[in-house]
Amino acid sequence: MLIKRKSIEKEESSRPARKAKYAPVTLSEQDGVRYLHFGTEWVQGAMRIRKPNWPELEYAQQMMAWMLWLPEPAAIAQLGLGTATLTKFCHASFPAASVTAVELNPSVIAICASMFKLPPNDARLRVLEMDALDYVNDAANAGALDVLQVDLYDATARGPVLDSAEFYESCNACLKDDGIMTVNLFGDHPSYARNIKAIKFAFEQVVCLPEVHDGNVVAIAFKRKRAIDVDALAERAAQIVADTKLPAKSWVKGLAQSLATA
Question: What is the 3-state secondary structure (H, E, C) of the chain?
Fold first, then answer.
């Protein structure tokens, strides 16, 4: 189990290195949308073929809700590449920002380049083949990011593969003082409560948008506590809609709903 990783590292250090095994990467298409799977029916990401940079799935759009507070980020990172949806959108929408994507499975990186229009690395874009835990624990990344987007699921999609308080503390450490993290969770799964508890332990403030799709809930975690002014956010949302066509007004409604029921 990943939560016991540190305790078994010493025991395994003397064993010969083994090549990691991954679930097969498979594709499907329907109504002009291409989907990524890991050998199961679970959807790991989607791309509308005629709009390759557009975040097709609603939860992916919600992962961009940090835009309500950070209109001009300088550094954005994505843990878990999926179909490179968030990576491509951020790279295209924020020309002044550096964008980093971290993905452990080399086949996912290859399929994103060949089938999901992921552009090659350039001066602003880096796609790293590495463990997300190693990335957030790298001292070189401390205090480096304005935005961290976390979407880490395996083939079974039973919950994020990294979900400990220690992991989320490391995510926090990667953020600048005004930094924001968004996380894709499953609201109707036992992993949800565990992740929310761990995120709240690691972050000053956490709010969640209403559930979409088949249970996806996006959590928004702030490194420092912020006043959530619904009227001011509504003005910012209108600008986001005008600039990007993302459904930002629905994010503000969702936040107001969450605050009312908290």
Answer: CHHHHHHHHHHHCCCCCCCCCCCCCEEEEECCEEEEECCCCCCCEEEECCECCCCCCHHHHHCCHHHHCCCCCCEEEEECCCCCHHHHHHHHHCCCCEEEEEECCHHHHHHHHHHCCCCCCCCCEEEEECCHHHHHHCHHHCCCEEEEEECCCCCCCCCCCCCCHHHHHHHHHHEEEEEEEEEEEECCCHHHHHHHHHHHHHCCEEEECCCECCCEEEEEEECCCCCCCHHHHHHHHHHHHHHHCCCHHHHHHHHHHHHHHC
**Model-level pTM?**
0.88
Mean pLDDT for the stretch of residues 79-103: 97
pLDDT band at 14 (very low <50, low <70, confident <90, very high): very low
Structure confidence at residue 115 (pLDDT): 95
